[in-house]
Structure formats: structure tokens, C-alpha cells
Amino acid sequence: MVGVMDVPAAMVSNQFFDEFTDKVRVKPLPWEGYLRAGLISGEELQQLKDFQRQLADGDSAEPLAGHVGLLVALAEKLSSIDALQYLLVALDELAERDAGAAAELARAVEAGAGERALFRCMDKKDDYLGLKASKILAGV
Question: What does the alpha-carbon distance between residue 109 and residue 20 come to, in Å, rounded to a whole number?
């Protein structure tokens, strides 16, 4: 079997990429609008708000890994570039901050759901989504 070459960090991390990631992280998204449009459920909205609150508070009482499935499911369902950018930033940060979340993301990719969501993002006409999805896949 041929081994996969290591991806140089410069390909997926540079000043512009990091600054854009910071902007995506703080950009408000109309999650309630997604609910009203029937794109997400009330339960998903509540879980997303809980996740955002947990990240903002730095509350580590609840494991972050439990949110990976939600983020992957939303990345599979939604098509908005802004929403997908946010979801990939959140997935990447979870994988970097929490070993349990990284393992859960790896399981989701192996099971196919995470892989479908990430490859779908690579097909979008947004360079940032492709780079971020590639960075996540390379990390798992």
C-alpha cells in the first residue's frame, strides 16, 4: 500500500487563512431563520445554541465530542457557504482542542457521514471551504 504524504502545514495554514477563520468564527449566522425555513429542527437549533454557549463559556463539564455528530449532520444538510464555513471551523477547532472530539470525527469520517460532508464542501465554489475540509481530512 502506498503511504499518504504528509501535507505541509503551509498549505492549510497561513496568515490570510487564519484571519479568515477568525472572521468566520465571530460572524453571526441566522440559525433561527434556518429553523423557520425548515432546514434544521428545533432540537438541532437548541443543541447548536448549547454548543455555542459551551464554547463561549469555556465550559468543559460537558464533553465537546458529543457535538461532532450534530456538526457533521448539519454540514451534510445545509448548503449555505456561510453556514458550512462556520461548521467546518467548529469541527476543526473541536478536533484540535479535544482528543475525544478528534476521535469522534475520525469515526464519523470512517463511517462515511463525515467524509461525505467534507467532500461535499470541497465541491463548493468556495476556496476556503475546500482548504478547511482538506485540513480536517488530513488531520483525521
Answer: 25
CB 139 within 8 A of CB 95: yes
C-alpha cell at 33: 431563520
pLDDT, tens digit only, all 140 positions of the chain: 445 555 555 455 688 889 999 999 999 999 999 999 999 999 999 999 998 888 877 765 567 788 999 999 999 999 999 999 999 999 999 888 888 888 999 999 888 888 899 999 999 999 999 999 998 988 88
User: What is the reported pTM?
Assistant: 0.86
CA distances from 115 to 25, 89, 112 (A): 22, 16, 5
Helices (H), 40-123: 42-57, 68-77, 81-97, 99-111, 113-123
**What does DSSP assign to residue 37?**
T
